[in-house]
């Protein structure tokens, strides 16, 4: 008896229970096998349960009030849009770009100069100027209720970096890198967006962060920071567990590139002169190296670098040099997204730049943690950006603004008439107009969930496209 016939003979309620535990990619595949399985995989309650996990992890934006009226086909369309990007954004599409959903947050003034849509799409964080040039203000707005739920500022303090965790319920954690006169510090806050109350979890001072590799994922905060302001700087990779109030550090070479945190693992890249590779350290293997955060001393930080990595993924073996010298110094950075279609899988984008920061190659890979033998890394695509990007625009930060739908946008690409997005897998650009009021926009950014955030003088608009 074949596996297909066995599935056909299972009672519908049993089969639905099995499908709830499978990956979305498996459900989509089974829906194309025959009419019976297509009917089973089209049951609305199945898709409500499948997408509830994506909502919890902040991987998809569906208004909760819309869930009850959505069909199974609507749920499938949301998943496809999150995986592949809006259909009208494709460089191959001739369709007119029109918003599927739009939310407007009314602002009391025009002082906002950047915005971040938090994972899940419910809250928008605005970074604002104040009457004082040395003081910034953070405001968090409930997008659909159109009200400010939390605000924070400190006289004489500006923010060099801010990050927020996924909102599960009403509580999130915020990391603020503050600059106050000549000093700097890291502040971790726990926020209740229902009441507007917050409490300080931890504080590190002095704190000298580098802008890249600034992350806040679940219980962990990670960044690249220097121990002092000497030159050349003494640099460390700092990892904090704010739940247990512990920290550890890795030695960091000035030629290294990045750090990335995912549930259960920390990833570090190699130096630019070595063959491209990523070292993965499991959180379990790091347990002996944790130190009390209360004893943190920037001038004396024990290092876990001597620990052998749990896995090493060779990206260099996939690199095919373009028409430039192999001996030319290269920098390899990466961004990592959870896969919507497969549990325990991540999508990696590697961006290779030359010494002038010109993008040379972009690689897309899948990292699979489902095997008992250990993580596996599979190359999905690679592209030489020189073949697709105009030489005058080679310095575009292709991975600076990445969204779940596989498209990127650089804020510098905003004009009075057009917005340009870049398809990440092949660097193909697509220009489109944002209705008739783009000339009023002062900031445009893509959220990790695929929403396009536009700041105007008196409002912040969030667009979702078909």
TrEMBL record:
<dbReference type="InterPro" id="IPR036047">
    <property type="entry name" value="F-box-like_dom_sf"/>
</dbReference>
<protein>
    <recommendedName>
        <fullName>F-box domain-containing protein</fullName>
    </recommendedName>
</protein>
<feature type="domain" description="F-box">
    <location>
        <begin position="4"/>
        <end position="50"/>
    </location>
</feature>
<dbReference type="InterPro" id="IPR001810">
    <property type="entry name" value="F-box_dom"/>
</dbReference>
